[in-house]
Write a structure and sequence with these properties.
The chain is 35% helix and 18% strand. By secondary structure, the chain is an alpha/beta fold. The protein has a 12-stranded mixed beta sheet, with helices on both faces.
């Protein structure tokens, strides 16, 4: 019996950004259909406009619902019937509203099992705000809609960086970091490394909260009073936790190569070095949830939107990683279930060559 292809949902992102371009150019390569069945949440009219604008020769199948997806084809779920105006490079409330419509429809399908995993194209955090959507970004919304505790996990082939705090003002960072938060984020990353990436005994490094890890309290007491005691407790439990390390020299020295993951205290402390070392090849993975979601490591890039020059590599990596993680989770479920139980039927995905 032929195995089923993984149904990969894709939210279209901000229509005035580069999302539509990188999505469609990724699947312009027909070989991508060997790995999955893409399900784009937008409309046939919108996709047709984008194909014409970027002069792409792609055949797709328009469907009313995600439940009507045709395997082995590029599917477009008609989330809206109207024909929204696309004004590349502009930040407009209209584009934000359609980005939210696409995201909500995709997440609904993800929750119901009509799609297996989700890749989200970039949204603009300013024009999505409103009564229907009041979140800093994808991660916080998905945390509400799905089961588990979400964690922004920036991932590439050689570097994985998680955050204790993500979209939090710098002035509030130290008030958010508690022993319980550290333990929760560590548990989430540790489990993700085991379940989603096949690391049997993860080695995880922590970066200090303050410069020079506080210099024995001279530059702040949070490291000495909160972070260091919590890491000692985790080590006493048998976990391979290391640090805290001074963040200013950790990446430049190459020390990050010695660990399976690094946990940074706040957004820029982790994402600046990650994007410096892995930009264009990195993926934003929402770890800790019961469903798989990835996205590229860039934003809407309004400054180049519509020009046909957007780099698709990060989005393509996000697609591959979503499929890889979905497969790893299936394998993990088989390994950890009762051996006497009937094994579930697997979705088809045999992996892919990084050289493609």
């Amino acid at each position: 019996m032929k195995e089923q292809s993984i149904k990969l949902g894709i939210s279209i992102g901000d229509l005035n950004g580069i999302g539509g371009e990188v999505v469609l150019k990724t699947f312009e390569d027909a070989r991508m259909l060997d790995f999955c069945t893409p399900v784009i949440f937008a409309s046939a009219k919108t996709v047709s406009f984008l194909l014409k604008h970027f002069e792409l020769d792609i055949n797709f199948q328009g469907v009313k619902e995600a439940s009507n997806v045709i395997e082995g084809k590029i599917n477009v779920v008609n989330v809206w019937k109207d024909n929204p105006r696309i004004n590349f490079g502009s930040e407009t409330p209209e584009a934000g509203s359609y980005a939210i419509k696409s995201l909500k429809a995709a997440v609904t399908a993800l929750k119901s099992g009509e799609i297996d995993a989700l890749v989200t194209a970039p949204i603009n955090k300013a024009n999505i705000q409103g009564e229907e959507f009041n979140f800093p970004g994808h991660t916080d919304y998905l945390n509400q809609e799905l089961e588990g505790h979400s964690l922004m996990f920036m991932v590439s082939q050689k570097l994985k960086v998680g955050l204790l705090t993500d979209h939090v003002p710098v002035k509030d960072v130290t008030t958010k970091i508690t022993a319980n938060l550290i333990k929760q984020k560590f548990k989430t990353i540790h489990h993700s490394l085991v379940q989603d990436f096949g690391v049997s005994k993860p080695k995880i490094a922590f970066l200090g909260i303050n410069p020079h890890v506080g210099d024995n309290g001279v530059i702040g007491k949070e490291d000495d009073e909160v972070l260091i005691p919590t890491l000692e407790e985790l080590r006493d439990q048998g976990h391979l936790t290391y640090g805290p390390y001074a963040a200013d020299s950790f990446f430049g020295s190459g020390n990050y190569k010695n660990f399976d993951a690094i946990i940074a205290a706040y957004h820029d402390q982790g994402l600046i070095p990650f994007k410096t070392l892995a930009f264009g090849k990195g993926v934003n993975y929402t770890a800790g949830l019961n469903k798989v979601r990835t996205s590229p490591d860039h934003g809407t890039a309004f400054e180049i939107a519509g020009k046909g020059i957007a780099d698709i590599n990060s989005f393509k990596e996000a697609v591959y990683m979503a499929l890889d993680i979905y497969k790893k989770r299936e394998e993990y479920a088989v390994l950890t279930e009762n051996i006497l139980q009937k094994q579930p039927r697997k979705k088809q995905y045999s992996g892919r060559s990084r050289g493609k």
